[in-house]
Design goal:
Helix content: 40-55%
Order of helices and strands: EHEHEHEHHEHHEHEE
Oligomer: single chain
Number of strands: 8
Bound molecules: NADP nicotinamide-adenine-dinucleotide phosphate
Strand content: 5-15%
Shape: globular
Strand order of the largest sheet: 3-2-1-4-5-6-7-8
Structural class: alpha/beta
Length: 243
């Protein structure tokens, strides 16, 4: 068991923002676990990041409670505690997505299973390991699309985007952030939601978006907050975001 280095788990780390977050945490000296649902993609990502530090693949499908449990056992056995948990794994289910009047309920269920229940499953399973760390940090990778404050502010175009399932899944993820921060008040653990901005990834192939290494910087900032940093907050690169 390695008890000297700090350990981090990033879910959905085989590509995109999760991959870049893992790289940056490894460069900071963390032992980084890449939680990936596909063994080949996970092992290949770990190989690619080997030059950045101590990076290890662990099989983890956030929709599968047994897979999450097994990953917690393995990480507990190998690194003893978990200093950082990044709930990054996410999906935007295209089929059946739409405004609240037309979205397919099944699309909402599929989206929630990864973006909300996935993060909840992983957080519950890893909380005992975070409690063993000196000052655990949980980062929920969210989006300003999930901000109800933004949605209802006059003139905001957010409500015209023909999608309800994805934004609402992140609204619920933000609820987890707030509720768990209150539950963990008085402990050294901090939990925050961050919006990484618009990043060029498979999920967001729109032109004009930044490289995911930029989005990862916001995630890493929340993962490495000092003792006097915020908890129960939602922020992006520019500062606090309204819930
Ligand atoms: P991405 O490139 O599509 O990466 C998503 C990652 O999540 C992949 O590694 C994927 O694995 C993994 N994943 C999906 N379902 C999973 C499951 N059941 N178990 C484990 N891993 C799973 O997307 P991204 O843009 O980097 O998104 C990362 C996070 O940032 C998401 O939570 C997203 O909502 C959020 N975000 C992104 C943007 C943006 O502009 N890109 C903006 C705001 C927020 P596979 O390769 O196996 O599918």
């Amino acid at each position: 068991m390695n008890t000297t280095k700090q350990a981090a788990l990033v879910t959905g780390a085989n590509k995109g923002i999760g991959f870049e977050t893992a790289r940056q945490l490894a460069q900071l000296g963390f032992t980084v676990w890449l939680g990936c649902r596909d063994q080949e993609r996970g092992e290949s990502a770990a190989k690619e990041l080997a030059g950045d530090g101590d990076v290890r693949f662990v099989s983890l499908d956030v929709t599968d409670a047994e897979s999450v449990r097994a990953a917690a056992v393995r990480i507990g056995d190998e690194t003893g505690a978990l200093d950082v948990l990044v709930n990054n794994a996410g999906v935007a289910v295209g089929e059946g997505e739409g405004l609240p009047s037309t979205v397919r309920p099944e699309t909402i269920q599929q989206t929630l299973d990864v973006n909300f229940y996935g993060a909840l499953r992983v957080t519950q399973a890893f909380l005992p390991l975070l409690q063993k760390a000196q000052a655990g940090r949980i980062v929920n990778v969210s989006t300003t699309l999930g901000s109800i404050t933004t949605l209802v502010s006059p003139g905001n175009p957010l409500g015209q985007i023909p999608a309800f399932a994805y934004p609402a899944s992140k609204t619920l993820l933000n609820a987890l952030t707030g509720w768990l921060a209150v539950e963990l008040k008085g402990t050294p653990i901090k939990i925050n939601s961050v919006c990484p901005g618009a990043n060029a990834t498979d999920m967001n192939p729109n032109p004009g978006t930044q490289h995911p290494s930029e989005g990862a910087k916001v995630v890493v900032r929340a993962a490495t907050l000092p003792a006097d940093g915020p908890t129960g907050s939602f922020f992006d690169v520019n500062g606090p975001v309204g819930w």
